Every structure is written in C-alpha cells, then in structure tokens.
C-alpha cells in the first residue's frame, strides 16, 4: 500500500510553484522579503525542496527574471499580432496600457523592475531584451518618434508598477491617440 503522506515528486510543478510564490511575495512585499522560509510558509515545500531547484536567492531571481522576459516577449508578440502593428515601440505602449490592470502582468513587471533596480546584471538583461525586442537595434538607430513612444511606454510602465500618478484608462487612451499622430 502506498504511503498516503508521501508527496509526489513533481519537480517542474514544484519549480513553478516556487517561482510563482517568489514573484508574488516580491511584488507585494518587496524583493527583500523573498526568503526561502517565506516561500516555505506560502507553499508548504521544504527548504530542501526549494534548494533542489535553486541554490540561493540570486539563482531564484535570475530564473524568475529570465522567465518573466520570456513571458513578456510572448505578450508583446501577441499584442503586435492582435493589433496588426508592425512597430514594436507602439505595440509595447499599447501592451503597457492594455495590461496595466492585469495582476499577473503587474506582478511580472514588478519583478523585472525590482531586479533591474537592485542589480546591474538584471539591468543589462532588461536592456538587452528591450534592444532586441522593442528597438530592434541600438537606440541611436531609432527615429525620434519611436524614442518618444518608448519613453512614454516606460513612463506609464513605471507609474503603474510604482503606484504613482494614477493615470486613468481614458487618459492612457488619449496618450495613445496623440502618439498615433506621430
């Protein structure tokens, strides 16, 4: 007879649970509050179970940022397709405005923002991602209009994730309409 108290080993499921818990704790309480113990308390996995996947908090953050950037790439690609937009900066702006109320998106973006603020390595990851997926090359090669759109998108992204300015959906739509004239 199988021991009813023995937990099934599902490494990929457990890894995702760890990442989800870390992201949620980081987004709500700040990255400094993400500890293996906090994750244990949230999902009930042992510290050893967490350490099976991540030797330390930095390794966990690196994987969380990497997965967040993959997810962001998928979202931006989908936004370009669904809106019929070729220009990545405008797709990024529309995506930021459209997703600003989505809790999963906000959590993902907060993780990226917090990581970039605390560590040069993550700023470089973000910059490389942005260069590849949004600017399509060096910023110097972008038109002034594209740069304006990207900077507005960044401003709205920071405002949403930092909880400042409280820009309404109507105002965001007006901003997009104004930028479409560029």
Automatic annotation (TrEMBL):
GO molecular function: DNA binding
InterPro entries tied to this protein: Homeodomain-like_sf, HTH-type_Tx_Regulator, HTH_TetR, Tet_transcr_reg_TetR-rel_C_sf, TetR_CgmR_C
Domain of life: Bacteria
Sequence ranges assigned to domain HTH tetR-type in this UniProt record: 12-72
Keyword tags: DNA-binding
Keyword Transferase in annotation: no
PANTHER family reported in the protein's UniProt record: ACREF/ENVCD OPERON REPRESSOR-RELATED (PTHR43479), ACREF_ENVCD OPERON REPRESSOR-RELATED (PTHR43479:SF11)
Protein name: Regulatory protein, tetR family
Species in which this protein is naturally found: Pedobacter steynii
């Amino acid at each position: 007879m199988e021991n009813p108290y023995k937990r099934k080993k599902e490494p990929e499921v457990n890894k995702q649970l760890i990442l989800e818990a870390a992201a949620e704790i980081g987004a709500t309480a700040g990255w400094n509050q993400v500890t293996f113990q906090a994750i244990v308390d949230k999902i009930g996995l042992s510290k050893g179970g967490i350490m099976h996947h991540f030797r330390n908090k930095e390794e966990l953050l690196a994987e969380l940022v990497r997965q967040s950037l993959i997810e962001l790439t998928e979202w931006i690609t989908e936004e370009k397709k669904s809106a019929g937009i070729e220009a990545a900066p405008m797709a990024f702006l529309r995506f930021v405005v459209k997703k600003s109320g989505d809790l999963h998106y906000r959590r993902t973006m907060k993780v990226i923002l917090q990581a970039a603020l605390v560590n040069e390595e993550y700023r470089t990851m973000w910059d490389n991602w942005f260069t590849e997926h949004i600017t399509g090359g060096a910023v110097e090669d972008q038109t002034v209009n594209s740069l304006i759109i990207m900077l507005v998108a960044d401003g709205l992204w920071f405002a949403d994730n930092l909880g400042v300015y409280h820009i309404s959906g109507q105002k965001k739509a007006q901003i997009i309409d104004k930028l479409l004239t560029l």
